[in-house]
Every structure is written in C-alpha cells, then in structure tokens.
Design a protein that fits this description.
By secondary structure, the protein is an alpha/beta fold. The protein has two domains: 3-32 and 159-241, Rossmann fold, CATH 3.40.50; 36-156, Rossmann fold, CATH 3.40.50.10090. The chain contains eleven helices and eleven strands. The strands form two sheets. A six-stranded mixed beta sheet has the order 3-8-7-4-5-6. It has a five-stranded parallel beta sheet with strand order 2-1-9-10-11, sandwiched between helices. Helix 6 links the parallel strand 7 and strand 8. Helix 1 (14-22) packs parallel to helix 11 (228-241) and helix 2 (39-51) packs across helix 3. It is elongated, with a radius of gyration of 19 Å.
C-alpha cells in the first residue's frame, strides 16, 4: 500500500485524505503550513465587501476565513469570482450564488482570460487573500480600469511536521498544491533530508508548482487537474503502472 502525504493546510486536506484512503493509499498529513487569521482585516472585511462590485477569492483558505464574516451580508448584487474550480464550487455551495471561474486552469492567468473581465472600467474589485501573494491579478484588473483593494485576512505560518516519523517511514509520494508549500517543505526539512526529498514522487495541480519543485532538484513530478479527485486518480494511475 503506497504511503502518500498531503502537504497543504489541514482545513483543506480532510476530503483529499478521505479519497486517498478510499482508493487504498496509506494517507497522512504533512503539516508544513498553518493558516492564522488576521483579526483586524476580518473585522474590516464586511465594510470592504459591501462597497465592492466584485469579490475575488484567490484560495480555499480565503473562503474558509472570510465566509463567517460575510455570510450575513447581502451579496445579491455582487459578482463572485474564484481562481480555481474547486474553490468556486465551495463558495457557490456556501453562498447559493453563481461563482465565475475558469473552466480550464486554476491561476490568475486563467481567471484574467475570462471575457467577463476584459473591460473592468468603473468596477470596484476586492481581492480576498492572505498577506502577500502575486501582484499579477491586481495589476491586470487595474490596467483594465478597475479600482482594486485587498482584504488580506490571513497569514501563513510555519507548521511543525514530525520529521522523526517522516524519517522512519518516508512516503512514496507527496501531494503539494502550491509553490509556497514547496519552499516550506525544503526549508523546514533541513539539509539532511534534501536528497530524500529530491527522490520522492510529487503530485501537483499546476505547472508552476512543478517548476518550483524542479528548481529544488526534484525529478519525479506528475501534474494533474486541481480537483482532489483528479489528484487521487493521477496517483492511482501512476502506481498501477509502477507497482
């Protein structure tokens, strides 16, 4: 039974861990990153959202942190957008509203390619995200005429993996879903584990994540769609071919 570790925040890992276990994997969580809410930003969020025409949620963590502060707000006149399909499905279920998202791809470039965002003149856009992040989305929307604000409602903190357990039973594969988590993995593991990490199989949802792994020296990288089911299906297919 292949051992697969999921290296993303625990709040977004439960369903993926369940699917992996159901598919016959020995699934575990590798806590490389924790999500810490930003109380002041969350307190200001309802007022910011009320003033916006469009709300863009850039990650599952943005939805998890924001929704308790937004659920009492009337969003009927707002346009809701997400970068990824899975995030859009989650937000649609919570809000009972349609959510605009790319049919293909799960990044800012794919979102910006939507024809609905070609002309943003006069639109007030609130980007809900963690502290920091890529500037592309905000810069591009502003260039198209939007007035852009940020609600940076959470901060990413270092997790505390059990590296002794990792050393005793190294995984056969690791699922890594963002470039930030790649950096966390290689930094927190320390120099003594670099060679082990470089030899592992990685399953990732985006070429940009694969590029970050390759830059760290990893060579066994498979890219799938971003949905949890696609990640699991990709690993099943790989291990069937490489028993």
């Amino acid at each position: 039974m292949p051992r697969v570790l999921v290296a993303r925040p625990l709040a977004q890992s439960a369903e993926l861990l369940r699917l992996l276990a159901a598919a016959g994997f020995d699934a575990g969580h590798l806590p490389l990153m924790e999500i810490a809410p930003q109380p002041d930003a969350l307190a200001a969020l309802p007022q910011q959202a009320a003033a916006a025409d469009c709300l863009v949620f850039v990650s599952p963590s943005a939805i998890d942190q924001a929704w308790p502060a937004l659920q009492a707000l009337d969003l009927a006149a707002k346009r809701l957008l997400c970068v990824g399909r899975a995030s859009a499905a989650k937000l649609a279920a919570l809000s009972s509203r349609p959510v605009l998202h790319p049919a293909e791809g799960s990044d800012s470039e794919a979102l910006l390619a939507l024809p609905e965002l070609a002309d943003m003149r006069g639109q007030r856009v609130l980007i809900v995200r963690g502290v920091g992040g890529r500037p592309l989305l905000a810069q591009s929307l502003a260039a198209r005429g939007a007035a852009v604000e940020f609600a940076e409602i959470y901060r990413r903190l270092d997790g505390a993996p059990d590296w002794a357990a990792f050393d005793r039973a190294p995984p056969d594969a690791v699922i890594v879903t963002s470039g930030e988590i790649v950096e966390q993995l290689f930094r927190l593991a320390g120099p003594s584990r670099i060679r082990t990490l470089q030899c592992l199989l990685y399953c990732v949802p985006h070429p940009r994540v694969a590029d970050r792994l390759a830059a760290q020296g990893a060579t066994r990288i498979m890219t799938t769609r971003a949905e949890d089911s696609a990640l699991v299906a990709g690993l099943k297919k790989w291990f069937c071919r490489h028993p």
